[in-house]
Amino acid sequence: MNPLPYQLGCSTYTQRQFAARGELRVQVGDRVEPDTVLGTEPARSEPIIVNVAAILRRPPPEVRELLLVEIGEKAPPGAVLARSGSRECRTPEGGMMASYDPVSGLATVLRSKERVELRANVAGVIADLVPGRRVVIETRGAFVEGEWGAGGHAHGVLRVAVQSPLESVPPDELDHRYTYSILVAGRLLTAEVLRRCAELEVRAVLAGGMLPSEFFRFAGASAALPAALRTLPPPERGRPATPAIVLLSGFGDQPLPDGAWRVLRACDGREGSLLAPGWPAKPRLLVALPRQEAPDPRPLVEARLEPGATVRITGRAAGSAIATVLQHPAPRMVLASGAPVEAVSVRTRDGEEARVPLYNVSVIENV
Amino acid sequence: MESQPLLEAAPVASSLAAPHVLVCDYGSLWTKGALLGRVDGVMRRVATCAVPTPVADDGLADIRSATDALAGKLRSLTGAPDFSGSESDERSPQVELFPAGSAAPALNVVIVVPTPALATRVEGMLQGATYTGWVRSGTVTDLLVGDLGALDAHPDLVVLVEGRAGYIPAGELQLLAQLLARTGADTRLVPVLHCYPEDATAASQELLERLGADVVRADLTAKPPRGLGAVRRKLTLVYSRHALARMRGVSDLPLTVVADFLSPVAAQAITAKFVAGALSQRVLVLDAGASSVTGVCAEGADARYTTLSGTGLGRGAPALYGKTGEESIRRWLPFEPQTDEIAVWALNRGLHPLSVPLTLRQALIEGAFMREALRVVIEALDVDAPPDLVIGSGALVRGMKPQAAAVALLDALGAAVPSWQRVTLALDTGNVLLAAGALAAEHPKMAAEVWRFDGPRTVATALAVRGAKRNSVAVACRPGWVAQPANLSIQGGELRVLRPPFGVSADVELTPVKGVRLPGSVKLQPVTVSLQPSAGYPLPQLMVDARPAGPPTGSRRTASVLKCLGDTGVYTARELESV
Question: What number is the ipTM of this complex?
Fold first, then answer.
């Protein structure tokens, strides 16, 4: 389904599921918050293999005498398994020492029987569930879809830090009012704003666009592509965690889309949940609104490309990127590259009528 | 292609049950279809088209929807009735479907080697063999102790490499079993490929036989490696089988599927080998796609191929930018880009892979990316000698005009193989390169028919001029179609096009000046090139390339790129003024 990217007064459904099988603690109809534990499942049970001989730089048969944890004994996380002079071999996780192989020098540690929690990540009501496997959470309120985002999930109070979609918040105007929030930073995101947000422990940052040079300053060199588009780099040792990032228009100097601006302003001060699994998946912001503000929410509306719809045209400058569809389909057009393509006739906001390639058009408002 | 009969017209095989054949290439972004059918008793391409590949909610390609959309579009193009071929209606024509594609997620591979020194070497040998995602290589011990996250995600294939340089010792078999259990290979959910030499036995044999491992007799540890081609082909086959399980709607296809799922590069390699053998030429096939770039080099009965998975002109644009760098893209532009202009193009193309360039400036940036993509894949192929024939496919055909594609091919070839001398440039405008290869496994003669009548169109013959001084006369030309004998000259640093009037056969006589080397010319004697229009070469033209070998460099780079685009007629002067 291809929903309209900015919707108010809608119901969205988010599925949360165990990696394998688990025990759910919720039922249909329960209200949940992002931190609510929906259930637990056993932690992965594969053993930890530690190359003790290599770490101690001793021949494997000699290491047997140097073990400080006996076979069958439990060891807490970080416990020293063996020592040789100044060299120590520690177990990365807690567990039971299961065996030591004097031929290979490998020790096997069986992990403690922990359980992993499945959290809701969004606020809403349990709408459906499959026992032991998954739940579906309905969130009534607002929905905003971005063009790119990364950083996993985040939740907090939505705070709009600018007065118009064309403004960009300067880093020195950010203070502790924005701590733990989902910050709407305006038009253009910079590396300085991101660093300031990290210092303030802002949970997530939304903006219209970001220059690649700023992105590379923050994420590492361009050689970090494409991994940097999927997963934000971890913070340097001792530095605060990186907030999740969402660009609503894409890369480059692009304003906040008008439709997104209207929804975000309406939700200023409300609790929101951001789901940004990383490119190529699109990020989504869900804001739960009280019943009196969303009395009769409708399911997410699907985008329909038809005469009268409002569209955004990819590849055009910001000023002429929003248009109204006049005719679809329109006669084919030939691009500057010489390739013929299917087309749509549009009229831009400044009155220009043109044919644009069909696949450069995305609907932001239906008729 | 020049009109040489690749195969004598053969009677139509009676084994084809349906009147139509549809070869579907399910790409990560586009699903391309070539509809073949009998025309006057001969197998011909009837129509081709492309639709965006739908993606199911779980992120996997939905090839049932793709096939429906493609069939609908072909129906509207050809007027062909019911594609679905209801069994209850004997009059409904049915279609045999030959599926191919790279829409499935890439293969994640674990390579187990006997010694640490072999890990990087073997990984390098197998990279590019098929559409690979992550690859982890190392000894049994290294892999067990290493990144647990990767192994816990389960690879799609485990390759165990043994040979003269080392075997897994009997004492490590227990650990090997543990590793195979960690990867899921112990339950046969993850296939295992066991590579070891013909005349050897391995201690791990029994364990791997019990797991149903596929055996390839090869010694990748030797220098040079033996049996590498067989191992690479196996990887392609695994991808094809894996692809079936990793796409939605495979079991629900509306048409009669008559062949195994083929990876596109394998189908192209089949066709390339056929063409190389038939024409006795070195053939280079280049396909620039949205999420991968492939190259096949064929000579005689041999074909080598490589796939740069994740790198392309659509979703793969960010990876291509990260791999080659800003400067490598910039050098192909006839203008100085603004700060971040190239990076914005690459990143936003990754976000909107279906979008196309709206302005000439954007098209020129795309052309620069195209040249780099082709250069990188040609270099990865590591060809022994320059090709005689280069065939372009993919975005070279769909995304640019033929003249632009010809210049892009020449630019990329010149950057990657500066020693080229004479080459024929062709474009797979009929989209039969993959179709013929896919059809060949079941109906080789039909495939040859399709290739003969609807194969690629030659767009240019190119000659390299070496040793020319910039702005000095390098070659004197006498085109035979000019009524009065006229002498034109080509200067060093130029790429000039000589083209007879439409429908006219004529020769061009080229004479190099002293110090300049022209292929075929001995002791400054003239070389004659014949330009004859034919069905496979309707608009013959000669491109004389007197530019310095290699990619454009220096302070006059943008001016020379601009001049080249104008001189070759890719864009008019007025169009280029606007850039």
Answer: 0.88
